[in-house]
Structure formats: structure tokens, C-alpha cells
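Moderator note: this is an archived Q&A kept for reference. The question asked for a predicted structure of one protein chain; the sequence and the answer are reproduced below.
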Amino acid sequence: MGLLTPDPGLLFWMVIIFGIVFFILAKFGFPVIIKMVDERKAYIDNSLKSAQEANERLASIKVDSEKIIAKAYEEQAQILAKATATADRIVKEAQDRAVAEGERLMEEMKKQIDTEKESAIRDIRRQVSMLSVGIAEKIMRTTLEDSKEQEELIDRMLDDMLESTKK
């Protein structure tokens, strides 16, 4: 016979051996292979699930970090605004104190100038009065010698006193 036509006895033994091998594989091999494939599938599913959760957590963390950064910028702006306001207030207070101190010093200087002015006027009046007394004394000595001149001097003095009291 030929190569392409199998012998019926050979065919019988091949089917029996195939059945035994298939039975052994079905009993012991396939469950192990299926179990390993299922475990591998479960591991891949868990890995995909974990990766998805990690991506979600990463997205959540990114959103949270953006919120924190935005809040930090807002707080920074508030702190800078407060610092600027405080600096402006301190400068304004310093200017106000400087102006007040300048005004106080000006008032003190005015008082001191007025005091010195009064003192100078008193001193000048004292000197003028001493000069006037000295001149009057000299005039009186010379005018007391003549009685007519004495009367004229007394009349002039009375007239001057009356005019100064009217003013």
C-alpha cells in the first residue's frame, strides 16, 4: 500500500493513543494551562486596574497641587499687599511725626525769637530811657538857667504828653 493510505490497524492504535494523550492532557495539562492563563489574565487585569487607579490618583494629585499652588499665589499676593500697606502706613506715620516735630520746633523757635525780641526791646527801651534821662538831664541843666526857656520846655512836654495820651 502506499504512504497516503493508512493501514486500519495503525489508524486504530493512533486513535487510541491520541485519545489517551488527549485524556491525560485534558485531565492534568489543560487545567494547569487554563489556570495559568487565568492567573496571568487576572494579574494583567489587576495591573491595568492599578495603573488606572494610579493615573486617577496622579490626576487628583495634579489638581490638588494646582489648587495648592493657586492658594499659595493668592496668599503671597495678600502678604505682599499687607506688607505694602504696612510699609506705606509706617512711611506715612514717619512723615506725620516729622511734620509734627518740625511744627513743634518752629513753634519753639518762634517762642524763643519772641522772647529774644522782647528782651531786645526791653534792653533798647532801657538804653533809650537812660539816654533820654541823660539828655534830659543835660538839657535841664542848660535850660534851667533861663526861666523863659524853662516854661517853654514844660509847655512842650505837657503838649507832647497830652498828644500821646490822645493817641
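Archived answer notes: Residues 8-143 form the longest helix (136 residues).
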